[in-house]
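Subject: two folds for Thursday's group meeting

Dear M.,

Sorry for the delay on this. The cluster queue was jammed most of the week, so I only got both jobs back this morning. I'm pasting them in the order they finished. Each block is the input sequence followed by the predicted structure tokens. Could you check whether the formatting survives your parser before we put anything on slides? The first protein is the one we discussed after the seminar.
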Amino acid sequence: MAELLLELFSEEIPARMQARAAEDLQRLVTDKLKEAGLSWSRAESFASPRRLTLMVDGLPTETPDTVEERKGPRADAPEKAIEGFLKSVGMTRDQVEERDTGKGVVLFAVLQKTGRKTAEVIAESLPAVVHGLPWPKSMRWADGSLRWVRPLQSILGVFDGKALDVAIEGIKVSNQTRGHRFLSPEPFTVKDFADYKAKLQKAYVLLDAQDRKAKIMADAKLLAADAGLSLIEDNALLEEVAGLVEWPVALMGSFDPAFLDVPAEVLTATMRANQKYFSLKTVKAVRPELVEGRAASGFDKPVLSSAPAPSTSSGRTGAPSEGLSPNGDGSALAPNFIVISNMETKDKGRAIIAGNERVLKARLSDAKFFWDQDLKVIREFGLGSLVPKLDGIVFHAKLGSVGDKVKRIIGLSFFIAWRLDEIPDSVIEPAKLSKADLVTGMVGEFPELQGIMGSYYAAFEGKSSDIATAIREHYSPLGPSDNCPTNKLSVVVALADKIDSLCAFYSIGEKPTGSKDPFALRRAALGVARLIVENKLRLKLREVLGVSLAKQIRFKDVEPGWSQKNLIPKEVEVAKLVSEQILSDILSELMSFFADRLKVQQREKGVRHDLIDAVFSLGGEDDLVRLIDRVQALQQMLATEDGATLLSAYRRGSNIVTIEEKKDKRAYTGGVIGDQLTAPEEKALYQKLQDVKARVAAAVNQERWIEAMTAVATLRGPIDAFFDKVTVNDADATLRENRLNLLAEFRATLSAVADFSKIEG
């Protein structure tokens, strides 16, 4: 068995494209090997800034001999048909066989192919592989036809210790490569993957991205510990930086502590986005004098005492801080950073650090300028003064401006708060200010800080911590791993924002299709489900969607004290009328969409999707908390022996009734005549059904789902006895009809708790 080693060496490949390109290289090459009938024991691909590498081990040195039979036309077929077959197989009439198949004599061509050298097969397929790599963006250079992400400089191709004999776009494949651009630029020869990897490391190249990431983390943590600091870990940044360097060297720099007046999130965003630096934090609590000094500094700086820092879903503090870290653990952002260099230098990186410190100073000065300018506006006019500017930002061509969206959020927040028995007026201000920071200089520079900066500015102005928290958290949860808000104002405004987006885009036909979801509606629906379920909100989702779709609640000039008694009932009635008569199809689509998202959310918690279907399919269930409680009770019941047996009995009984209804062209609706029951088993089942129906109705009415499921499970014994002793399709038509009605009543009784026809297994 032999080993194949490939390396495509080029100018720097963008970090975001490297992992996918390595996977594509492995896929394209192994597909070609499969086509040639080759198998292998192991295949691995690697990527670094300047190279894509593939190793395939356990390959035979020759492809296997093959014998293929192709069936042709009958021997007495028209001459043209026979000629066409012979041409397709490349044989003459006397080279094909005639076989009697029992349906006549048929021509067969036996094609024997002798194995070829694997090196030749690989060499022939390699040009198509190189040309076929699907880059998101590609370029041409010089006068060749090859399009690649960056100019391709050399190709290493070694099979069984020897270089492949092929050239691609004037580049001769060889057994040579190069190491680090500056530290070891001389070419060297390799014979196999182990030799290649070892020599690369000697030439200052860590081939495996996992090795580079491990070295970055280990060195960065060691530097931080030596300085009495702690690294703020950032997996996304680590992934990117590992794609920027081939020989990572961690260096620590510092910046002027005066910049710690700027919020920690701004500083870390500046260092992360612009410079790819890792941030550091102290391992000690914030000094009391920092807080005291800030509180005594007047309105030129944030006053913590007047606006307690809101806690958030990510654990970050919401009030402006002087170096407070985003970790909520009493530590502070340190005036230091870790930069990952691609060089080892004689001066131990001092020149590199100095250069990065100069660049960072300029970046932080820009950030501080935006911060100071925003604070001047907030101090003089307040955060609310920015809201009218939202009318100048287009939300969507068919849906108006962000200002229009904010008006809808205000109205929907008011309605949701009323439905949750909260004070509706309390949500007006956070809803109104929720998007105000979009027109600030800081968010213009760092869009990822939207909401975060709004909470800082609200706290600066002296708004309550609940309002500041709601502004920060109304975008949450951003995904399945993001913490879900629990603050009441946050939850209400977050629901209104997400529901408005869903209804708005559905109303203009912009719905997720397949893998495309440009407006992140799946994430919004999942967020709504999590907000409702995790906070146990008793909310009628269909009603809220109807209100949003009908677009009836529009507060353009909202004033606290609007009469909810006069306003809300009217809005509910109008929304109900419009949604039922005009928007019923959209509303149904939205409810189905939510059911799918709920399945995704609950599947991660171990809840079966078919059980959600079984409850959702009953119709009229739009209280997600009640629905999940019902599903969990159903799951518990089906996990028991009685539950599993009852499910089988339901299917048997339902199938019998369905078949007979189709045959008789009529429906059996459960109109059982008790006096016509003759067998003891059918009498016992009928009596048990009356008892269970009453118990289930009472339990369902009081939302005692486990009690309802327990009652249903008691039908196991009587229904088993019924099927064992009673003939449903009796010769007596009267008995047959009554027994079919009895089974229909059994089916209906179970359907009162769930649609058992939707349950799998």
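Second protein, same layout:
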Amino acid sequence: MSAVTHKPNSPNSKTPQTTAAANAAAASFAALTDNLGYLDALGIEQVRQAYRFADEAHLGQLRSSGEPYITHPIAVAAQCAAWKLDAQALMAALLHDAMEDCGVTKAELIERFGVAVAELVDGLTKLDKLEFNTREENQAESFRKMLLAMARDVRVILIKLADRTHNMRTLSDVPRSKWGRISSETLEIYAPIAHRLGLNQTYRELQDLSFRHLHPWRHTVLAKAVSKARSRRRDLLQKVRHDVGEELAAQGLTVRMAGREKTLFSIYKKMNDKHLSFAQVTDIYGFRVVVPKTLDCYTALGVLHQMYKPVPGRFKDHIAISKVNGYQSLHTTVVGPSGINIEFQMRTEDMHLVAEAGVAAHWLYKASDTGPESGDRLGTQWLQSLLDIQDETQDAAEFWDHVKVDLFPDAVYVFTPKSKIMALPRGATLVDFAYAIHSNIGDRTVAGKVNGQQVPLRTELKNGDVVEIITAPISAPNPAWLGFVRTGRARSKIRHYLKTLAQTESETLGEKLMLQALRAEGFEQLPDFEEKPFKGILEKLLRFTGNKTQSELLTDIGLGKRVASIVAKRLTSLLTETGEKRNALLLSTELFTSHEKVSQGAVLLDGSENASVQYASCCRPIPGDAVLGYLGHGEGLMVHTASCPNALKQQQRDRERFISVDWSDEPVRQFEAGLLVTAVNKKGLLAKVTTNLANSEIDITHVDIGSTARADTADLRFLISVKDLSQFEAALRRLRQLNDVLRAERIQPAA
């Protein structure tokens, strides 16, 4: 149901016969007929059939204004007809509330009007379940449905925008308590989508209507101020229009000029964002100059700059480099009479059509522009990117996070080495550029060049940059990229890769843990569940754990969501039921070693585990330390030193989640450890200590000098990277040999 509708038994405050007659006229098919001249006879008849069906379905329902409810679908269809959408879209516009409000089923619509119309209505029915500022998960899921329906068929969002526009026009009839929620939703979601699709007229109207209902007093004050300023400058603007028109005609140009005024919302936003008074907003007025040919736009620009002085930095050529939503125009701001800034926009008729209607222009002039570039130029490339993001993202909230960054494309335009122009959101980096080219390029990126110079991957791109990406077959996405990428596409691709990687690692860890637990139960290895004796055991085991597959079960064990020992006991029970016998020697060995030393089934640590294993920051274990592992709930394996007081406390409460771990003979990376140095506070102390550490081939990752009450000594706290315990202890011995060092020791966690 539409957000601002009111169902049967609404009070009708207007009862005169004239109102009844007006309602009847608005509710009749004749209210739509005048707009359908572009359809053939069959199309008009199909729309008429949909109207009759909708009229009957909504019989007895009233809007908050007291009008028959059918006036709303008619108004929505009329807006779609203004965009010259096809008969199917107009039928869906008339029927868009029928499924949700009137109990009509999708099967009925398929039977009466065909699959295409039913799919459009079904998509719109799902959209209307939006509730702004409700539970985050539901809201995100609604947005995902809306955007994916839009990506599959752009007519869905065009009908939805027409629906929202009419609802906003009639919002004054709705209880005032609903104004804030509906207007905020429109301003935050639907207006940006309209802008992203190039529907500038709809975008401006939705913004101003939202502003009027969100801030009625501010809207009224600003409207009066603009009206006064307009009347004061009417003569001046008429003179400018006359003079420019004459000069352009003298140059042989056929032009159509129209005055344009900044919308109240854009004036308010500029005042608010830049802390300006109304008097300081100087570019309220402007003119749009529509000419026959592209070359005429540049000729008109030259004429204007001869007549008036241009404002530096205010010229933009959106014809040579169109905006991401397909918008094309030349913009310039000149200093007019009395020092007033006036903006001029030069464009052709086709450009004007796209500027006002965006993707809807596909229907408005599809006969004259059917080239392969037209779809991309009208912003539909963004719709396809929604489907790409969906492929990588299953979580609705995450999907919405990715898409939000693309809804406000204050774009920069950069070039590939082959001079192809690419549009990216402002703040985009080399990694965003790489993923915009192709996901495989992004995944294998190792470096990049801007204008021939090698720069860091986090470098923000600027207009006109020539960008080259350097790749390597063995490269992979870096988690740190998530800290600076700007586009939803790049973010979703990186997250998808990291999730897949983490799942693979967790599954490998889970298999190790399961094998260790099975050895403690007397079984050498996991059974092959494909073999005949063990078929059916896996199904029973999965029913016990609540998992769908063996892979999912092992991943859950690796993440700590399932306890390996419990699963192993259940599997042991199932195996013994089929006649399998435990290995008595293995069982006794495991039982003995679990008390005396680390079990042979222990998980080996070498630093290559990435997301599946974490090293506790409280005790910072390093190779050579006695260690133990704790399987957190969904957090993977956390490794502590055996003497860590935090781990010992946890062990008392949750002993079954602690498992045997040990260091590999050859760790593949360095590990961080805390170091405390207390020394005589002399000039050059820090330099002396750091030089000593460097001579021990120790890397320093962090230094904290801190503050001390005694001026004669200083405590220096370091985080250092070491290969193992022996290297750390050798560094301590060298530090203790320095004359001014009073104490050097490892930082231990507080008890």
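Two things I noticed about the second structure. Residues 497-663 form one domain. The first helix runs from residue 17 to 26.

Cheers,
T.
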